[in-house]
Design brief:
Length: about 240
């Protein structure tokens, strides 16, 4: 019998809606209406609003006064900013591996890449993406840099819908496993600087393809016009 404690309801809801956002069930720009979500998940307003707040902290959801929550939209500029900054931070994480024992990390990286190959053969996009994330997370953990980790986590969350859509559109063209293998080979030889350059190139390689997925600038419905009454001149 399992002794695991169930997730609090807001975190359970957050994860369900998060997965829906990542796989495109709730597309960028779509409204996340409380009544519809309450009916869909059989929940009350309080836990749902807390789930939305958690998703907002992760960068996947935005809130507009008087209009509620909606899924984040991605412009070309924002997509490029996310990818370039991720590339720089990933490079810094690899540079931080200098002087650390790498054998446990290399084993983790190989396992993650093998898992990616298994999911790729089965055309399992979600499993493939999770294994891909595990590869990069292993490097970040070994780098053991808390400010760096806290900087890249929200970027990775914001990038998840883009990465899923990119895989769905270019499944047979993914070169991530080969690029991971190159990074593993460089690290196994102690070539930290070369591995650092390689991982930055790996992250930004698909920046043009990722940007083409969301060619329109984000749009938000303008707030309703407020009727302005003429100001009266005060009597003297």
């Amino acid at each position: 019998m399992s002794n695991s404690v169930p997730q609090p309801i807001p975190y359970f809801l957050m994860e369900k809606i998060r997965q829906g956002i990542i796989v495109g069930r709730y597309p960028p720009g779509s409204a996340l209406r409380e009544q519809a979500l309450e009916a869909e998940y059989g929940t009350s307003r309080g836990p749902l609003r807390e789930a939305m707040r958690l998703l907002q902290l992760r960068g996947l959801v935005l809130h507009e006064p008087r209009r509620g929550f909606r899924v984040r939209e991605y412009s070309v500029e924002l997509t490029q900013q996310i990818y370039r900054l991720r590339g720089l931070l990933e490079r810094h994480a690899v540079e931080a591996l200098a002087g650390k024992p790498l054998e446990p990390l290399l084993s983790e990286l190989k396992q993650a890449n093998d898992a990616m190959a298994t999911h790729f053969a089965a055309r399992q996009i979600e499993g493939y993406l999770e294994a891909n994330i595990a590869f990069h997370d292993a490097i970040m953990r070994t780098a053991d840099n808390e400010p760096l980790r806290k900087s890249i986590e929200p970027l990775n969350e914001m990038a998840q819908p883009i990465r899923f859509a990119l895989l769905a559109n270019r499944w047979g063209k993914s070169t991530a496993m080969d690029e991971h293998a190159q990074i593993i080979a460089l690290l196994s030889k102690g070539k930290i600087e070369e591995a650092a350059r390689s991982i930055e190139e790996h992250v930004v390689r698909n920046i043009a393809a990722a940007s083409s997925l969301f060619p329109m600038q984000p749009t938000s419905t303008p707030a309703p016009a407020v009727e302005r009454r003429p100001r009266r001149t005060p009597e003297r």
